[in-house]
Amino acid sequence: MTDSAETGRLRQLGWSDVFAEQLAPDESDLHILRVSSVHRSRIDVIDVDGAADVVLAPNTNTADFAVGDWVLASPFTRDFVRRLDRKTVLQRRTEGSHGQQLAAANVDTLFIVTSCNADFNPARLERYLIMANQAGTRPVIVLTKADTVEDAETYETQARALQRDLPVVVLNARSPDALSKIAPWCGPGETVALVGSSGVGKSTLVNTLAGSGAEAQQKTGEIRQHDAKGRHTTTARSLHSIAGGGWVIDTPGIRTLYVSDVTDGIDTLFAEIIELAPLCRFRDCTHQHEPGCAVQAAIAGGTLDAARLERWRGLLAENREKTPVSSGPKGNKIFRKKKY
Ligand SMILES: Nc1nc2c(ncn2[C@@H]2O[C@H](COP(=O)(O)OP(=O)(O)OP(=O)(O)O)[C@@H](O)[C@H]2O)c(=O)[nH]1
Ligand SMILES: [Zn+2]
C-alpha cells in the first residue's frame, strides 16, 4: 500500500477510497496512473509527477479506456496491469450503431453550460441532467452571458425548477470572477467536465479554469512524446489541471452527448412525478385520463407543470425506443395501455 504522503499526492490527482479499496495486497507496488488522453493505439497517462508511461499489450482495444480512468502498471516494465472500476462514467451513443462510446470516467461534477439567450432550452437541459444522473456525476447548471441580459434571474428560476436541489450558477464566462462562482466544485482532487451547445462559452470557461499562469499553461498545454515508431509527436492532453487544484476533462466527444438507456436518470430528474405515481388510484395509472390520478391532480392544483409531464413521457418513449430490449427500462410498463 502506498504511504500516506504518496496517498495525499494521489488525492490531488483525484484518487479516493473508492479506488484504494480496489487494490489487492499484492498490488501495493504497482504504479498508479490516471488516463489523460486516449488514442487509437495507445493511451497517455499521468502520475503525481506529471506525464508518465504505460505500455499496452499489442492489439489492445483502447476504446475500453476513457479519459479520467485509473490504471495500474508495473513499476519496472511499465506494462499495463489493469484498469480500476470507475466511480462514474459518461458515455455517448455512436451515430448509426447501438454501441456506446466512452466519453469520460470518474467525473465528479458535470457543468451543463447554457446561455441566458435563445440557447436556453429546458427540454435539452433535462436531457443533459438525465445523462449526468445516469452517469452518477453531480450536475450543475452554468448560465453564461448573464452580462448580456437584464433578466438573468428569469433563466435562473427556470433552471432551478428542472430538478430538486439543482445548483445553478449565473455568470459571465469572460469575467475573472467566473472562477470563484464555480470554484466550490473545482477544489483539489475534484474532476469536472463541461457539456453544452456550440458557442455557449465552454472553451472560455475551460480557459478560465486552467488559469493563465506559466505553470498552468505548461500543465494544460500540448505535450510532446514518442510515438510507437519512436518519433516525437505532439498531442493535446484531455485532462487539464485547474488553477484551484482540480481537473477538467475536455475531450472532443464529451461536449455533446445523447440520451439512451437512462431510466434511472429520468427517474431522478422527474422525482416529483415518480413520487406522485404511487398515490394514484390505479397502480398502472398512465396519468392521462384515469380517475383518482395524483399526477393530474397536481397539474390541476398548479404544483406540477403539464409541459413537464409531457416531456417526461417523451423522454421515456425515446429511451424505450433507443434502449435494446435485453436491458429495457423498467418504466416501459407505464405505457402499456390497460382497459378498465
Ligand atoms: N458577453 C459574454 N460573452 C461570452 C460569455 N461566454 C462566452 N462568451 C463569448 O461567446 C463566444 C463563444 O464562446 P466559446 O467559449 O468559444 O463557446 P464554446 O461553448 O466553447 O463553443 P464551441 O467550441 O463551439 O463548443 C466567444 O466569443 C466568447 O467570448 C459570457 O458569459 N458573456
Ligand atoms: Zn396517475
UniProtKB/TrEMBL annotation:
Binds 1 zinc ion per subunit. CDD domains: YjeQ_EngC. Zn(2+) binds at C280, C285, H287, C293. PROSITE patterns: ENGC_GTPASE, G_CP. Its cofactor is Zn(2+). It is found in: Cytoplasm. One of its GO terms (cellular component) is cytoplasm. It is an enzyme of class 3 (hydrolase). One of its GO terms (molecular function) is GTP binding. InterPro entries: G_CP_dom, P-loop_NTPase, Ribosome_biogen_GTPase_RsgA, RsgA_GTPase_dom. One of its GO terms (biological process) is ribosomal small subunit biogenesis. Residues 96-257 form the CP-type G domain. Keywords: Cytoplasm, GTP-binding, Hydrolase, Metal-binding, Nucleotide-binding, Ribosome biogenesis, RNA-binding, rRNA-binding, Zinc. Its EC number is 3.6.1.-. GTP binds at T144, K145, A146, D147, G196, S197, S198, G199, V200, G201, K202, S203, T204. Residues 105-255 form the EngC GTPase domain. Residues 320-340 are annotated as: Disordered. Belongs to the TRAFAC class YlqF/YawG GTPase family. RsgA subfamily. Monomer. Associates with 30S ribosomal subunit, binds 16S rRNA. One of several proteins that assist in the late maturation steps of the functional core of the 30S ribosomal subunit. Helps release RbfA from mature subunits. May play a role in the assembly of ribosomal proteins into the subunit. Circularly permuted GTPase that catalyzes slow GTP hydrolysis, GTPase activity is stimulated by the 30S ribosomal subunit. This is Small ribosomal subunit biogenesis GTPase RsgA.
